[in-house]
Write a structure and sequence with these properties.
Oligomer: single chain
GO biological process, one term: carbohydrate catabolic process
CATH class of the domain at 28-223: Mainly Beta
Protein name: Hydrolase
CATH architecture of the domain at 28-223: Sandwich
Keywords: Hydrolase
Organism: Kangiella profundi
Structural class: mainly beta
Number of strands: 42
Shape: globular
InterPro entries: Carb-bd_dom_fam9 (IPR010502), DUF5916 (IPR045670)
């Protein structure tokens, strides 16, 4: 009996593999029906009997288009206004379903969903997923940049229902959420299930070949969209924010200073001008960031840290402005008076235009060995506002190639920075590609920057990047050349290092395990890489050789081991270095993830230009205690030594706990803690403190009916302790509330 069962499974797997190789799936015909559904996850409406039935037969990860271990069926239909999709996800052990009430986009649960390539060009897709209690996750997947943007949020509707044999999901996706060409007739579409057990199984309707270097391009096609329209796609979101903030600066200013409650109101507008283009605009825009950034160690760093964007206005259509180098980093637009953005795509042409006026003008001053953050102020120390503009255009060449251009501009009286760039991707074969980017900047520096940073009154610079890569099933190869003039600046972007050229080359070998052989690891790889960086003066800055071992396996585990040998030139000295790192994570049970990272070896004390050694240890964990209550914690310890002794040691602690009442409301408590002990006598600065502790805390209640209809009420404070005060002193405290409501017409 066992032999017969194994033979049947083998025959099924071989048949599926042959089907996957031939990519012979028939197009899905999506019928149009009258009426609507009641979202309850029970699939008891007559509409579903008229829907097209689709099975998810392939396990695409960790298996390679093998037979799905569980049965999943999708039903799809459209009614002229919305795409209606339902899933029946069967499970032989429904007690092992992994799910929780949580905020949107918390990937990792049991989930079912689908992706749609509305322009049918194999480049980008919208992803929509739902877990067994109806919590949504969505994103935009981009084959051009090989990235996925989970910060994008659409307003769509879903419900789920747990059954005795698994769970069901119903989804209603209004067409006005999507951008698509006029007279659409065919879309790319796939139906996917994530099934977390020993591995994170990915089950799908479309097979996924590993010898093709794209994902969206491999999904099946669906017909039946003739005559659809986005309709009156107008959304208005007024908001109101109340904030009472107080600050002080002990020990010199121990008294709290504040101006009472500050009220802000405004309006966000989203208008789908056509089916394929959207205008976003704001009046007194809400650019508030509700949740705090995680603490990062900025001791002994050469270049400024990068913080990701979290504000809704900038997240809408962010993929239209994405370039290989980050020429537009919207976190540099700190406090705008207004904002307007127009994005769209049609017949292979895509574009994005952004304009704003920022009340604060701050940006990076990059260099070959370090960077600084500059901020323009007047004679009274007040911020100077500036005008901001960015535009991006891209054109699709053939099936998988693209060429694009980007312009950014920031200016005020006596100051200007403009950047113009051309970039592209050319697919030579299914696994070989060439990417390139050429950038030019023109800058006028005010007297303040000339005096503070020794800059010339005006400057211009050129930068470029050329990259070849081969990403096959078993072998990956890449070669990169990068060159930036010393005077290149991208003040609206994130480019902290200039004045160098870089050559890099790497080879990676991939292997895959199978469940049939009881392999613990589902995939593992070995990569060897070499790199050389030379300053614009022809002084060699860095030679580096790296070997990396990666492995993923049971218990949803992942491990990385890296060894490096380098020679680094810094302030007229060569520093030979050997340093290593090891990291890993796994799920001992589905509700608990545990991870760690270790780094050790030779380093450089950049402040005093001397050799050093360091050890870093970190652990982190995410624990879903109940379906409603979760913990997340991260601790990082750094010990940094020079020949004379320990230079500093640092502890960083990020802690979050959250109680999610239901799909919409939650209570969250956050602590960000940084503690650094300095060996002051070993620093050349006579005012060096011996200890510095920084703490940020936040208590936040949130209610999200959808991504733009929200209510927040919170309290946050921060403070420090060092040798200038006798105890921990708070330096800021804020009580805030925010309410916004999205009206859709």
């Amino acid at each position: 009996m066992y032999l017969l069962k194994s033979s049947c499974c083998l025959i099924a797997s071989v048949s599926l593999f042959i089907a996957a190789e031939s990519q012979s799936l028939e197009n899905i015909n999506i019928p149009k029906v009258e009426g609507d559904i009641t979202l309850d996850g029970k699939l008891d409406e007559a509409i579903w009997s008229k829907a097209t039935k689709v099975s998810l037969d392939y396990e695409t990860r960790p298996g390679e288009n093998t037979q799905s271990p569980v049965a999943t069926t999708a039903y799809v239909v459209q009614n002229g206004e919305s795409l209606l999709v339902a899933f029946v996800a069967e499970d032989p052990e429904p007690s092992k379903l992994h799910y929780s009430f949580r905020d949107r986009d918390g990937w990792g649960d049991d989930q079912v969903g689908f992706k749609v390539d509305t322009f049918n060009d194999g480049r980008k897709a919208y992803n929509f997923f739902v877990n067994p209690v109806g919590v949504q996750s969505d994103s935009i997947e981009d084959d051009v940049s090989l990235s996925e943007d989970t910060s994008w949020n659409g307003i769509w509707f879903s419900a789920a229902h747990i059954t005795k044999t698994g769970y069901n999901v119903e989804i209603k996706l209004p067409f006005k959420v999507l951008r698509f060409p006029e007279n659409s007739d065919k879309w790319g579409i796939d139906f996917v299930r994530f099934y977390p057990r020993g591995y994170m199984y990915r089950l799908a309707h479309s097979p996924q070949r590993r010898d093709i270097n794209c994902f969206v391009c491999q999904i099946n096609k669906a017909e039946g969209f003739e005559g659809i329209e986005s309709g009156r796609n107008l959304e208005m979101t007024p908001y109101i924010v109340a904030q009472d903030s107080q600050t002080r600066n002990p020990p010199s200013e121990p008294s709290w200073q504040g101006e009472g409650v500050d009220w802000e109101t405004g309006l966000d507008l989203r208008w789908g001008i056509t089916d394929s283009s959207v205008l976003n605009a704001t009046i007194n825009p809400d650019f508030s960031q509700v949740e705090t950034d995680a603490a990062q160690l900025d001791v002994n760093t050469q270049f400024s840290l990068f913080y990701s964007e979290k504000r809704p206005f900038f997240l809408e259509g962010a993929e239209y402005f994405r370039t290989p180098f980050t020429l537009l980093n919207t976190r540099t637009i700190a406090n705008p008076d207004f904002g307007a953005k127009y994005i769209g795509k049609n017949e292979g042409h895509s574009f994005g235009i952004l304009a704003s006026r920022d009340q604060q003008t701050s940006f990076l001053i990059p260099g070959s060995l370090s960077s600084s953050l500059a901020r323009l102020t007047d004679v009274n120390g007040s911020d100077i506002e500036s005008d901001v503009f960015a535009a991006r255009y891209a054109y699709d060449l053939g099936e998988k190639s693209q060429i694009g251009g980007m312009i950014t501009h920031r200016s005020t009286d006596g100051y200007r920075n403009s950047v113009a760039a051309i970039d592209g991707k050319y697919m030579i074969t299914n696994v070989d590609e060439l990417r390139y980017e050429v950038m030019y900047s023109d800058t006028e520096n005010p007297e303040q920057l000339q005096q503070q940073y020794g800059l010339a009154p005006s400057s211009d610079g050129l930068g470029y990047r050329v990259n070849y890569s081969h990403n096959g099933r078993d072998w990956d190869v890449f070669a990169t050349h990068i060159d930036f003039d010393n005077d290149f600046r991208a003040d609206l972007g994130y480019k902290p290092q200039v004045g160098y050229d870089r050559q890099a080359f790497g080879v990676k070998r991939n292997w895959y395990g199978t469940e049939e052989n009881n392999d613990f690891f589902s995939d593992y790889s070995l990569q060897v890489k070499g790199e050389r960086v030379t300053e614009y003066t022809d002084q060699k800055l860095w030679d580096l050789a790296t070997i990396t071992l990666n492995a993923n396996g049971e218990y949803r585990s992942g491990f990385t081991l890296v060894g490096n040998v380098s020679y680094e030139f810094y302030q007229n000295n060569w520093f030979p270095q050997k340093y290593y790192s090891h990291s890993g994570s796994f799920y001992p049970v589905n509700a608990l993830r545990v991870g760690y990272n270790i780094r050790w070896g030779d380093g450089i004390d950049y402040r005093n230009a001397r050799a050093a050694t360091y050890q870093e240890y970190g652990v982190y964990s995410n624990w879903q205690v109940t379906q409603h209550w979760s913990f997340g914690g991260e601790w990082q310890f750094t010990d940094f030594d020079v020949e004379q002794g320990q230079l500093f040691k640092a502890d960083i602690f990020n802690f979050d706990t959250r109680y999610q009442f239901d799909q919409y409301s939650y209570l969250k408590f956050v602590i960000r803690y940084t503690d650094v002990d300095y060996n002051a006598p070993l620093y050349s600065n006579p005012n060096q403190v011996s200890r510095e502790t920084i703490i940020d805390r936040q208590l936040l209640y949130g209610y999200k009916w959808n991504p733009r209809t929200v209510f927040y009420l919170g309290y946050s404070d921060n403070g420090f302790e060092d040798n200038t005060v006798n105890q921990f002193e708070r330096t800021g405290k804020t009580l805030f509330s925010k309410f916004s409501y999205a009206f859709q017409f």
